[in-house]
Write a structure and sequence with these properties.
Protein-serine/threonine kinase, 2 domains, BCKD/PDK, alpha+beta, about 375 residues, ATP-binding, Butyryl-CoA Dehydrogenase, subunit A, domain 3, globular, 4-stranded mixed sheet, two-stranded antiparallel ribbon, nucleotide-binding, HATPase_dom
């Protein structure tokens, strides 16, 4: 299925060209090393080639989605955003890094970032539209393709936003001050980020349930005992993960202990070891049934009620452990469009080869 009309045949040619190249993954250390000696011209030359490659790789995968999903209005909107952004980046493909071009490029990147700010919500709405059009029943093969694609779409989106944020913060109109290097904090305090995410999630919980669990944080610094843990990280990324986990945890705790006066607290443990930093969140929200464990990381599964739509027809956010490597080992993991990825969209649902994996097939009762 063609994603773009015939009049945009030139865009299709450029997509074919740039999707031949693999994106260049970067580590946080590389971002920092460049940021300490930041040169807008070097960044410009790199991004005008790297951004089209990253955009083209994921745009080619959009065309491989099931046609039933591509016909959904929200998915079409996301596709149009990527086309527009790809066109805008290509406008700088052969331009020199003069001061006027550098200024235009920075403004264009800000527009692209803002345009894609609602990709996650809009794509989620597209999935809901598909489920509604099928009365809640989606073919297993389609669900498999959607799961594979969304993993790659969101990883690609994070990587593109990281590149754009670094450039626009370092070389934007407002000079950066403080210790941050772009969006990276070389002395990020995970305890403070945990507290910030908790307070914002608690605000939502208080509004919905009129109460909320308390927070207990424990730190174990095995490398520098007695001192608070500091890491090189992007605080906004850590905050987003924690905020979503806190919302899930608070909902589970409140629904499990809603009638009790003393709601058990949420406990967060932060541990710094020789190779990584681990953040563990635990609660007394009733746990997860073993039969549902395989569903936890599927985008089309949720225990929360379906969110209502806002005036823009986008779903409102419902009140619904991570591991971080050190900066020199924290390389980007980027999706690549190739024959291997193409085969995943054509794969059928794997057949269960264990006795408890095949659903719907009833076994005969054993009579002893």
């Amino acid at each position: 299925m063609k994603l773009f009309p015939v009049r945009l045949s030139n865009i299709n040619k450029m997509l074919d060209f740039y999707s031949q190249f693999n994106p260049s993954p970067l580590s946080i250390k590389q971002f920092i090393d460049f940021g300490l000696n930041a040169c807008p011209r070097k960044s410009y030359v790199f991004l005008r080639k790297e951004l089209p490659v990253r955009l083209a790789n994921i745009m080619k995968e959009i065309t491989l989605l099931p046609e039933s999903l591509l016909r959904m209005p929200s998915v079409g909107l996301v596709s149009a955003w990527y086309v527009k952004s790809f066109e805008e980046v290509l406008a700088f493909e052969k331009t020199d890094p003069t001061e006027p071009n550098l200024e235009k490029f920075c403004k264009s990147l800000i527009q692209i970032r803002d345009r894609h700010s609602d990709v996650v919500q809009t794509m989620a709405q597209g999935i809901l539209e598909l489920k509604e059009s099928r009365n809640g029943a989606v073919e297993p093969s389609t669900e498999l393709s959607i799961q594979y694609f969304l993993d790659r779409l969101y990883m690609s989106r994070i990587s593109i936003r990281m590149l754009i944020n670094q450039h626009t913060i370092l070389f934007g109109e407002i000079p950066q001050t403080g210790r941050h290097i772009g969006s990276i904090d070389p002395l990020c305090d995970p305890h403070m980020v945990v507290q910030d995410a908790y307070e914002n999630a608690r605000f939502l919980c208080d509004q919905y349930y009129l109460a909320s669990p308390e927070l207990e944080v424990i730190e174990h610094n095995e490398i520098d005992k007695g001192n608070p843990i500091k890491i090189v990280y992007v605080p906004s990324h850590l905050y987003h993960m924690l905020f979503e986990l806190f919302k899930n945890s608070m909902r589970a705790v409140m629904e499990h202990h809603g009638t009790e006066n003393d709601v058990p607290p949420i406990k967060v443990t932060i541990v710094k070891g020789k190779e990584d930093i681990c953040v563990k969140m635990s609660d007394q929200g009733g746990g997860i049934p073993r039969s549902q464990v395989d569903q936890l990381f599927k985008y089309m599964y949720s225990t929360a009620p379906q969110p209502s739509k806002s005036k823009t027809d986008l779903p409102l956010v419902p009140l619904a452990g991570m591991l971080m490597a050190f900066s020199d080992e924290a390389n980007e993991l980027l999706p690549i469009f190739n024959k291997t990825s193409t085969r995943f969209y054509k794969a059928t649902v794997p057949t269960g080869d264990w006795s408890n994996q095949v659903k719907g097939k009833k076994s005969k009762p054993i009579v002893i």
